[in-house]
Design brief:
This protein is mostly helical. It has one domain. Helices cover 58% and strands 0% of the residues. The chain has 3 helices and no strands. Helix 1 packs parallel to helix 2. It is globular, with a radius of gyration of 14 Å.
């Protein structure tokens, strides 16, 4: 698990919930059928590209469900897990 992988995962989450679930669209995974959760990294994809793709999915989701709020609280917990692996500190 990496922060870049987490950005890619959130991109897939955006597409899944807003395009597939809410809008009922039949769209493929953003990062391909072999990477349906988005966590697999490619050496040629950097943070700038991953953020741009994520931002495009967020924009599309907002178009589809303008009245819904977006919450990433659960995924913020994932980032906490990464930080805990680095500094060993748990809880607050």
């Amino acid at each position: 698990m990496t922060l870049l992988g987490l950005v890619q995962h959130l991109t897939e989450v955006e597409r899944n919930w807003f395009q597939r679930v809410f809008a009922g669209q039949d769209v493929p995974p953003v990062f391909g059928e072999n990477n349906i959760d988005g966590y697999v990294l490619r050496p040629d994809r950097g943070l700038d590209e991953a953020l741009a793709v994520w931002q495009a999915e967020v924009a599309r989701g907002r178009e589809l469900i303008a009245d819904a709020s977006l919450e990433y609280a659960r995924h913020n917990g994932h980032a906490d897990l990464i930080r805990e692996q680095i500094d060993g500190v748990t809880g607050a």
